[in-house]
Amino acid sequence: MAASLTLGAAGDAGAAGAAGGRPIVFARYTAAAPTEDLYAISPSGGTTVKLTHTPTVSEVMPSWSPDGKRVAFVRYGSGGAIDGIWTMSTTGSDLKAVPGTKGASDPAWSPDGKRIAYAKPVGTQREIYVADIHGTPATRLTHTAADDLHPTWSPDGKYLAFSRADAGGHSRVMKIRLSTLAQTAVTGPSSHDWTPDWSHGNRIAFSRVDSSGFAHLYLVRPDGTGLHRITAARANDKNPSWSPDGNSLVFTRGGVDDADPEHLYLVRADGTALTQLTKTDSHDLEADWRP
């Protein structure tokens, strides 16, 4: 691993706005490649930078540290076994495994840079954990029969939002207060809501499979009010990530067939200035915008 996240601008992509050139890191795979690697791209577009070069293992689910100096990610082998969460510098060097995270997924770096939240299997379900960046002590936050995943931090670091999937096939956005472990539902019990991301402006973006049968992006306040949709194409929109200024989002858009390419798009929080960011014949997933 030897690439750098220093990316040059390539013109103005409307939704990038005041976010400037802070790069977006994401996972990519193609039909020709047996594994997934991490890439970075400027929100203004241009050439992608390949960050990882590991032909026998995959790197997915990247998460920026708040100072922009490191990236946490999940590594798994060709057999699908999850090796756990790792971190690396922005040059792809100084690889460090986070102890105690074998089988874990969905890393999310805390606003103070000291902790990582993640989902980890407990029996047949996943629960939300939080640990310091060295892996200890790891604290289990949720204890339910449901599947809890995709944690995201509130700007003040006092709460996590996450997806909770029940046995009936529904998934809703939940919120947990770290000091008391009190949990509150943010979206309704009969929803199909996934991959929340909490902005510095205190809004939560998430992907919902709605009555159209497609997954669209929605916004909601942490108290559950102000719900509204911001994308409406006949396509599946998922994995939203907020820009540093809280005005725009990057997300993955794909078709109705798993074989269709999936590209990164930008959109303003009011649903305007939709811009396609990546255009290769690939699957570009799980983008995270540098703070």
Brief synopsis:
With 291 residues, this protein is an all-beta fold. It has no helices and 24 strands.
Describe the protein.
The chain is mainly beta and 291 residues long. Helices cover 0% and strands 47% of the residues. It is built from no helices and 24 strands. The protein has strands at residues 24-29, 37-41, 49-50, 57-64, 70-77, 82-89, 96-97, 105-109, 115-122, 125-132, 139-140, 147-153, 159-165, 171-177, 183-185, 193-198, 204-209, 215-220, 228-229, 236-242, 248-254, 262-268, 275-276, 283-289. The strands form 6 sheets. The chain has a 4-stranded antiparallel sheet, with no helix packed on it. The protein has a 4-stranded antiparallel sheet with strand order 4-5-6-7, with no helix packed on it. A hairpin with a 5-residue loop joins strand 12 and strand 13. It is globular, with a radius of gyration of 18 Å.
| Rg over C-alpha atoms, rounded to the nearest angstrom | 18 Å
Query: Structural class given helices, strands, pairing?
Result: mainly beta
Count of beta strands:
24
DSSP helical segment count:
0
The averaged pLDDT comes out at: 90
Element string (H = helix, E = strand):
EEEEEEEEEEEEEEEEEEEEEEEE
Identify the strand order in the major beta sheet: 3-2-1-24
Cα-to-Cα separation, first versus last residue: 23 Å
Write the layout of secondary structure elements.
Elements: E1 24-29, E2 37-41, E3 49-50, E4 57-64, E5 70-77, E6 82-89, E7 96-97, E8 105-109, E9 115-122, E10 125-132, E11 139-140, E12 147-153, E13 159-165, E14 171-177, E15 183-185, E16 193-198, E17 204-209, E18 215-220, E19 228-229, E20 236-242, E21 248-254, E22 262-268, E23 275-276, E24 283-289
Antiparallel strand pairs: 1-2, 1-24, 2-3, 4-5, 5-6, 6-7, 8-9, 9-10, 10-11, 12-13, 13-14, 14-15, 16-17, 17-18, 18-19, 20-21, 21-22, 22-23
